[in-house]
């Protein structure tokens, strides 16, 4: 059976959606928009031979205000093509600071959240990740998933959460790196 390019694209998107939906079943339960720290969700991603290594870095500070939706981090996006099903492993690291937060609560009520999306879908494990919640420091997260053959885009989104609603907050990333490893 010969498939058209459009048919292969639709099949690839459907397979990716199903794979990410099935993987989301292993994600941690949500409580008030945050991951429940009392529940452990173990995930494994075991890949084989490395096929591609894509790295983007930025050393210019970027600042955002509080928001009810995640915003794309400028420049933190890569597009690549796979010829067969592959494993993608994405690491995002940044120097981060939450400006204007009151650090007198334990655990911290305010934070900078990070989402790593592939083809517009949030990868499990980062949907509400409290990436940074304090003073200036280095932070990192790593996620992985299997993806079908085709063209894919990985993009980092971020958001400032003000759950205590008593501060005017800003989030700042400096010296960040997006590292994408593709394995069979």
Briefly summarize what is shown.
11% of the residues lie in helices and 52% in strands.
Summarize the helices and strands and which ones pair or pack:
Elements: H1 5-24, E1 30-31, E2 34-35, E3 50-58, E4 62-65, E5 71-82, E6 86-99, E7 110-118, E8 121-122, E9 129-132, E10 137-147, E11 150-162, E12 170-183
Antiparallel strand pairs: 1-2, 3-12, 4-12, 5-11, 6-10, 6-12, 7-8, 7-9, 7-11
Explain this structure:
It is a single chain. The chain is mainly beta. It has a single domain, classed as Jelly Rolls (Sandwich), CATH 2.60.120.40. 11% of the residues lie in helices and 52% in strands. The chain is built from one helix and twelve strands. The strands form three sheets. Strands 3, 4, 6, 10 and 12 form a five-stranded antiparallel beta sheet that branches. Strands 5, 7, 8, 9 and 11 form a five-stranded antiparallel beta sheet that branches. A two-stranded antiparallel ribbon has the order 1-2. The protein starts with a helix and ends with a strand. 26% of the residues are buried. Residues 1-40 have low confidence and may be disordered.
Query: What ranges have pLDDT less than 50 throughout 5 or more consecutive residues?
Result: 1-40
Rough outline: elongated
| SSE class | mainly beta
Helix-residue proportion: 10-25%
The number of helical runs is 1
The top level CATH class name: Mainly Beta
Main sheet attributes: strand count, strand direction, barrel closure: 5 strands, antiparallel
CATH topology annotation = Jelly Rolls
| Proper CATH architecture | Sandwich
Rg (CA only):
17 Å
Number of domains: 1
Number of strands: 12
Succession of helices and strands: HEEEEEEEEEEEE
Cα separation of the termini: 25 Å
Percentage of residues in DSSP E strands = over 45%
């Amino acid at each position: 059976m010969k498939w058209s390019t459009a048919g292969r694209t639709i099949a690839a998107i459907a397979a990716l959606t199903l794979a990410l939906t099935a993987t989301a079943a292993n994600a941690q339960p949500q409580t008030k928009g945050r991951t429940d720290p009392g529940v452990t969700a173990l995930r494994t991603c075991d890949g084989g031979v490395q096929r591609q290594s894509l790295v983007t870095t930025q050393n210019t500070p970027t600042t955002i205000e509080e928001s009810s939706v995640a915003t794309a981090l400028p420049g933190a996006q890569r597009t690549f093509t796979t010829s067969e099903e592959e494993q993608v492993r994405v690491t995002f690291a940044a120097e981060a600071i939450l400006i204007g937060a009151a650090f007198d609560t334990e655990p911290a009520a305010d934070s900078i959240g990070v989402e790593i999306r592939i083809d517009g879908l949030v990868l499990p494990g980062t949907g509400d990740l409290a990436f940074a919640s304090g003073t200036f420091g280095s932070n990192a997260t790593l996620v992985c998933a299997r993806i079908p053959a085709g063209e894919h885009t990985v993009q980092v989104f971020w958001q400032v959460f003000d759950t205590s609603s008593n501060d005017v907050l800003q989030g700042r990333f400096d010296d960040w790196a997006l590292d994408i490893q593709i394995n069979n």
